[in-house]
Amino acid sequence: MEHKKTTISSAPDTAPYYQEIGKEVEVFQHCWKNHLPFLLKGPTGTGKSRFLEYMAFTLQQPIITVACHEETSSTDLIGRFIIKGTETVWQDGPLTIAVKQGGILYLDEIAEARPDVIVAIHPLTDHRRELFIDKLGTMIKAHRDFMLVASFNPGYQRGFKELKPSTRQRFVSMSFDYPEKELEKMILMKETGIDSGVAKKLVNIANKIRNLTELGLTETVSTRLLVDAGKLIQSGLPKRLSVEVAVVEPLSDDPEIVEALRDLTQLLI
Ligand SMILES: Nc1ncnc2c1ncn2[C@@H]1O[C@H](COP(=O)(O)OP(=O)(O)OP(=O)(O)O)[C@@H](O)[C@H]1O
Ligand SMILES: [Mg+2]
Question: What's the order of all strands across the beta sheet hosting 6-9?
Fold first, then answer.
């Protein structure tokens, strides 16, 4: 099934927990009001998806998420003819659905998608706000409540695709990063229920590892990993084991690095 990487979720009933880090909520609201596309930049596990869920709740809009990968084409986004019995029928893709019905279309890891995806979204990202469906020969105007949001992880891995300046400059952009200590501690306590002493230790471990640039990790400890460790601890798994399996092991497959990180973290928890 070609759209298995697409999820459509209506606006959440209750506010998802999101700890604001800077001015992102205000900026996003103004983008929404002004029909400007928005790009979330930043490493994995820094709250980009959570932020978007929170904004969708605030604005009471559905989110259609497309997890882009190297095979993602404009056809996947716009739609295709499918065979149904003896007939061929047109089926709208997630982009077309969002353009028609309104809501937030989230292209997660946009740089991974094939170049024709970028071509297809260009007319939607400027004053035209229209989508050309080449297979039908039609042009549709975006719904008043259509908003395009994309995420991009710069410097993710060697060989990782870049975004072209002509694409980047079509988005209002904000960088997401690991929160400062007090905020990250609060996030851990709220998300997992652990006490402030344990939360402080986890944040301390994260900051120690984040500063070890000589390890050459492709990605370092994210808030997500700390949340996972916190959940395991809160459910009764011993602290050291929790940190080992939720923080150390996910960071590297190199036995020497894993051992070094294990030694370091065991002293700190
Ligand atoms: N500012 C925040 N407020 C609340 N929770 C947060 C925040 N930042 C991170 N988290 C926690 O970290 C987890 C991971 O965040 P999220 O899934 O939003 O990351 P992401 O930036 O979308 O990562 P990826 O690039 O891998 O998709 C969340 O499930 C949440 O528990
Ligand atoms: Mg995400």
Answer: 6-9, 63-67, 103-108, 146-152, 38-41, 172-175
Pairing of strands 103-108, 146-152: parallel
Does the predicted TM-score (pTM) go above 0.85?
yes
Last residue of a domain, one of 175, 198, 213: 175
Tell me if 107 is assigned to some domain: yes
- The pLDDT tens digits of the residues spanning 156-166 come to 554 567 888 88
> 18 alpha carbon to ligand 1 midpoint, in Å?
9
179 alpha carbon, closest ligand? 1
Query: Which amino acid residue places its CA nearest to atom 10 of ligand 1?
Result: 47
- Ligand 1 centroid–CA 225 distance in Å is 10
For residue range 49-104, list pLDDT tens digits in order: 999 999 999 999 999 999 999 999 999 999 999 999 999 999 999 999 999 999 99
Cβ of 187 less than 6 Å from ligand 1: yes
Q: Residue 254's closest CA among 246, 264, 262?
A: 262
Quick one: 237 and 131 in the same domain?
Answer: no
